[in-house]
Write a structure and sequence with these properties.
This protein is α+β, with helices and mostly antiparallel strands. It folds into 2 domains: 249 residues, no CATH class; 184 residues, no CATH class. The chain contains 15 helices and 13 strands. The radius of gyration is 22 Å and the shape is globular. The structure holds heme C (HEC) (2 copies). The site of one heme C has 25 residues, from helix 4, strand 7, helix 8 and helix 10. One heme C binds next to helix 13 and helix 14.
Length: 505
């Protein structure tokens, strides 16, 4: 079951779109830059040509927003270094909300209630551990807090049309909705438990080395609300790291669309398409966030997190009962936490804005050892293996970005923010917005080398199946099959250097 939007169909959709078209559809150039700026930008974002020393500015991989603080387990929790005083104050308030444990209603701690009735976690931080990534459950007795499972069923014709137009991401299970909530407030059953078993497989690498990959087999046990739809599709996702998101938001649409190659016109085996989704006002935007890029902004992603993950209403998604469906009537009838004197929602707009501001201003740490010989050899291997075809090294952000701290920065996120077919091994066979069941958004790689410094259980790829960076690379298939095969064929020192390079990011 696929819901692929062809470009032709998309143009028809665009013509009917209520808001302005996506900048860059048609106009493939940056309207925020002067001619002189454009030349400078082209120069500084050109691919690396020599690998005997670090490039200029490479250490500060998020420009002036980079954190140059000493690296330890808090390395992902610092504010962008170029935030002004007022920005730092907002960051601190947002930090409090990101860490806050919400409680169920009614409660004596009035401004903190409204959790659930169904939920996955009590705080943002419970999943985005220390502002870093999550991990799958450690065993059958561990709950899956920093991971969630998305649910959907094959869409009806009408739903399919709404998906094609960008209004709907997927058709929900009629009883369980869009996401499995494995926790519930007292008096209500949880929706079920996530169970993951692994099948191990050995991969032989050149030079006599081997690697062991674990393939997850996902199941849901103890369904709390009767049987699932027979066509149920599941997709497990770990929480991604929170750093550098405002800068990703400030990459110009034209820079993203310029790398699209949906029909692989250049014949390099790599296509790449932007996910096009509607924002809450119905405007068509490039999807940038989430493992399939279905959210156009950090604020929208955050509103969905409040609703789906914690059962909290915001002005963007005002249902106090969170993700309870019509079929879950007892859940819809539970008390909620909205209070007239604080606003119509459990999380009023100003608080949502603070959380979004915080989420957009977590700094990317500076590179380590970027000029060391092994790291440089690894960088060369990264280029030579074709990783840069998707993990685009550099951009200069918009001059007119909303936040001054994100404007006109040379950044090195190593992503094209496009969707790629990653092959059978990684397929979840569950389409989401314009992404099909084999496609994933190239994740940014900045900071990835610090993942386990932040949290020892940190895992890689959308469902956290990869325990190491090498395992993550060896899972690449589909459009990335060639790059993956080159890594398998590398001699051991070159492969080790490639990993050292990733660790230096
Ligand atoms: C139950 C775990 C969980 C909780 C709680 C949670 N998140 Fe997430 N978050 C995720 C997962 C999983 C994703 C990826 C979603 C996807 O692929 O669609 C994500 C994605 C994101 C992203 C996009 C990051 C990127 O690189 O694409 C942002 C921003 C975000 N969450 C913010 C928040 C905020 C703010 C909160 C609290 C209001 C929150 N999250 C609560 C699990 C969680
Ligand atoms: C065709 C595009 C493409 C190419 C080429 C490619 N990648 Fe990726 N990469 C992706 C996508 C998409 C994902 C996310 C897949 C998933 O989560 O299932 C990913 C994930 C990763 C991850 C894990 C990121 C995370 O946050 O968990 C690493 C590490 C990585 N790639 C490194 C590499 C290296 C090294 C190469 C070259 C050998 C490479 N990639 C080539 C698209 C690509």
């Amino acid at each position: 079951m696929r819901a692929r939007v062809s470009i032709a169909a998309f143009l028809v959709v665009l013509a009917a779109a209520p808001g302005p078209a996506i900048a860059g559809d048609g106009v493939l150039s940056r309207d925020d830059l002067s001619g002189e700026d454009r030349e400078r930008v082209a120069e500084v974002t050109a691919p690396a040509a020599v690998f005997d020393k670090a490039e200029r500015f490479e250490r500060r991989q998020a420009g002036a927003a980079t954190s140059t603080k000493r690296v330890n387990a808090n390395a992902f929790s610092h504010p962008s270094e170029n935030l002004d005083f007022e920005g730092r104050q907002k960051f601190l308030l947002g930090n409090g909300l990101f860490r806050k444990d919400w409680v169920s209603s009614p409660s004596s701690t009035l401004a903190s209630d409204g959790l659930g009735p169904l939920f996955n976690a009590r705080s943002c931080q419970a999943c985005h551990i220390k502002d870093g990534r999550g991990h799958p459950p450690a065993g059958h007795d561990d709950n899956a807090v920093s991971m969630l499972v998305r649910l959907s069923i094959p869409p009806t014709e009408e739903e399919e049309a709404r998906i094609a137009e960008g209004f709907l991401a997927a058709a929900p299970d009629p009883v369980y909705g869009n996401q499995l909530q494995d926790m519930a407030v007292a008096g209500l059953p949880a929706e079920g438990r996530v169970r993951i078993d692994y099948e191990e497989m050995k991969i032989a690498l050149a030079g006599g080395e081997t690697a062991t990959l674990r393939k997850p087999v996902l199941a849901i046990t103890d369904p709390g609300y009767g049987p699932f739809h027979t066509g149920l599709m599941l997709s497990a996702r770990i929480a991604p790291p929170m750093i550098g998101l405002g800068l990703l938001n400030a990459i110009h649409d034209a820079d993203i669309l310029a790398r699209e190659d949906p029909d692989d016109a250049d014949g390099d085996g790599i296509s790449g398409r932007a996910n096009r989704v509607r924002d809450h006002e119905g405007r068509l935007k490039i999807g940038r966030f989430g493992w399939k890029a279905i959210q156009p902004s950090v604020k929208e992603q955050s509103a969905h997190a409040f609703l789906g993950d914690m059962g909290l209403s915001t002005p963007l998604l005002p249902q106090h009962f969170g993700e309870c469906t019509e079929a879950q009537d007892a859940c819809r009838a539970m008390p909620h936490g909205a209070q007239a004197h604080l606003g119509a929602e459990e999380v009023p707009g100003d608080l949502l804005d603070l959380v979004a501001f915080y989420s957009e201003n977590l700094a990317v740490p500076a590179r380590r050892k970027e000029g060391g010989p092994e790291v440089l050899a690894g960088k060369q291997a990264f280029y030579a293996a074709g990783c840069v075809s998707c993990h685009t090294p550099k951009y200069v952000t918009r001059r007119d970005a909303t936040e001054p701290a994100h404007r006109f920065q040379l950044i090195w996120p190593y992503t094209d923010l496009l969707l790629h077919d990653m092959g059978d091994g990684l397929a979840d066979d569950r389409p989401e917005a314009g992404a099909d069941g084999r496609e994933w958004r190239t994740p940014p790689l900045w900071g990835i080398g610090l993942s386990k410094t932040i949290h020892g259980e940190a895992a890689f790829l959308h469902d956290g199946r990869a325990r190491t960076l090498l395992e993550a690379v060896l899972w690449h298939g589909g459009e990335a099959q060639g790059a993956r095969d080159r890594v398998v064929e590398m001699d051991p020192p070159e492969r080790a250097a490639l990993i050292r390079f990733l660790e230096s990011l």
